[in-house]
């Protein structure tokens, strides 16, 4: 009986050790999105290219990406070439021009190419707040049932695309 | 003396930084202002994570402060504003965690450990007493 008691510190050490070990290397910046598992919030946003207003019912019926971007955002410059590649391979992307100026955004798409099915303007960032966006770039995966299944804070790239692609159903 | 003044100045600057992050806002009553201040102190900035909304100068914190200000002026209750933030950014935005099954250990773990420690203490005292012959 007394011998078992002597082993308690070892057991506690092993438990704590394994607990802490599995927390190592975790992304401390990762923040789960409150939107995952829900439909997109209602919106009525003006298109960047024409003056048409788009709402919920205009969204694609297949799985697609929602990409928040702005010309003021340095990481969006990095991300853009890969978005062009995705668009070429047939991935539908809805662009949200986040807290930007229309003229600058139009110029950017004319110069660098337009990977978006359509681009909506969120000049004041209100739709961004509804989506729980913290900055740009940020990308959401919406599945064919219209439910948000994944959120990526930061640049979408060749490295993380394979795992994101898995959510596109 | 000049050096001392420099040190003092940088000290004051450090503490006034959070005040710089606040924009000019007008409130219709002193109560609204107090509620605003306590709300932005208790909501966590979703971008910077280790700062509350009041202290952060990131763009999203500015937006959310404005949102809190608007909602207070619209007559929303504190709970409604907190629910609004949680619906968008998750319970993560609360500096004071909710009482739920996920945060049970966070809230009550220390008391459970204290209780276990007390039980162990009593146990040790009892066995020692028994070994000495069962009396005082």
From TrEMBL, chain A:
One of its GO terms (cellular component) is plasma membrane. It holds the Pfam family Redoxin. The keyword Disulfide bond applies. It is found in: Cell inner membrane. Residues 34-169 form the Thioredoxin domain. GO terms for biological process: cytochrome complex assembly. Keywords: Cytochrome c-type biogenesis, Disulfide bond, Redox-active center. One of its GO terms (molecular function) is disulfide oxidoreductase activity. PROSITE patterns: THIOREDOXIN_1, THIOREDOXIN_2. InterPro entries: Periplasmic_diS_OxRdtase_DsbE (IPR004799), Redoxin (IPR013740), Thioredoxin-like_sf (IPR036249), Thioredoxin_CS (IPR017937), Thioredoxin_domain (IPR013766), Thioredoxin_ResA/DsbE_sf (IPR050553). It is a single-pass membrane protein. Belongs to the thioredoxin family. DsbE subfamily. This is DsbE family thiol:disulfide interchange protein. It comes from Marinomonas profundi.
From TrEMBL, chain B:
GO terms for biological process: cytochrome complex assembly. The keyword Membrane applies. Pfam families: CcmH. Residues 1-21 form the signal peptide. InterPro entries: C-type_cytochrome_biogenesis, CcmH/CycL/Ccl2/NrfF_N, CcmH/CycL/NrfF/Ccl2_sf. Keywords: Cytochrome c-type biogenesis, Heme, Iron, Membrane, Metal-binding, Signal, Transmembrane, Transmembrane helix. The keyword Transmembrane helix applies. Possible subunit of a heme lyase. This is Cytochrome c-type biogenesis protein. It comes from Marinomonas profundi. The lineage of its organism: Bacteria, Pseudomonadati, Pseudomonadota, Gammaproteobacteria, Oceanospirillales.
């Amino acid at each position: 009986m007394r011998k078992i008691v002597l082993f308690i510190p070892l057991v506690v050490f092993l438990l704590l050790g394994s607990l802490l070990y599995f927390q190592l290397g975790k992304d401390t910046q990762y923040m789960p999105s409150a939107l995952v598992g829900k439909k997109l919030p209602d919106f009525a946003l003006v298109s960047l290219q024409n003056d048409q207003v788009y709402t919920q019912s205009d969204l694609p019926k297949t799985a697609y990406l929602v990409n928040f971007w702005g010309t003021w955002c340095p990481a969006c410059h990095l991300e853009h070439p890969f978005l062009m590649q995705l668009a070429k391979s047939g991935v539908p992307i809805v662009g949200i021009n986040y807290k930007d100026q229309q003229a600058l955004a139009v110029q950017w798409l004319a110069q660098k190419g337009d990977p978006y099915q359509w681009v909506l303007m969120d000049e004041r960032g209100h739709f961004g707040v509804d989506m729980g966006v913290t900055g740009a770039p940020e990308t959401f995966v919406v599945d064919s049932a219209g439910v948000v299944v994944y959120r990526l804070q930061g640049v979408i790239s060749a490295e993380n695309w394979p795992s994101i692609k898995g959510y596109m159903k | 003396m000049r050096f001392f003044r420099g040190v003092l100045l940088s000290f004051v600057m450090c503490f006034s930084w959070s005040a710089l992050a606040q924009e000019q806002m007008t409130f219709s009553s002193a109560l609204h202002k107090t509620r605003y201040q306590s709300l932005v102190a208790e909501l966590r900035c979703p971008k910077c994570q280790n700062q509350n909304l009041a202290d952060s100068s990131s763009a999203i914190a500015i937006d959310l402060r404005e949102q809190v200000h608007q909602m207070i002026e619209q007559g929303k209750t504190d709970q409604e504003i907190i629910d609004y933030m949680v619906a968008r950014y998750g319970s993560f935005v609360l500096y004071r965690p909710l009482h739920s099954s996920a945060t049970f250990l966070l809230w009550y773990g220390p008391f459970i450990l204290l209780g276990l420690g007390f039980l162990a203490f009593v146990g040790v005292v009892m066995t020692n007493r028994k070994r000495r012959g069962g009396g005082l």
